[in-house]
# Entry
Amino acid sequence: MVAEWIEVKEFGECLYFFFLNNSECKRFNSSTLLIVKQFF
# Structure
C-alpha cells in the first residue's frame, strides 16, 4: 500500500497521504507516523 502513496506531507503529528486513485486524504496518528517514516 505504501507504493500507492505519491506525496507525503507532515502537519504536526499527523500525515496526509494523497493517493493515486483519488484526491481523498488519509489521516494517521503519531504512532503510525513513526512506522510510515521508515519507508521514506
Helices lie at 30-36. DSSP finds one helix and three strands in the chain. The chain has one domain: 2-39. The longest strand covers residues 5-11.
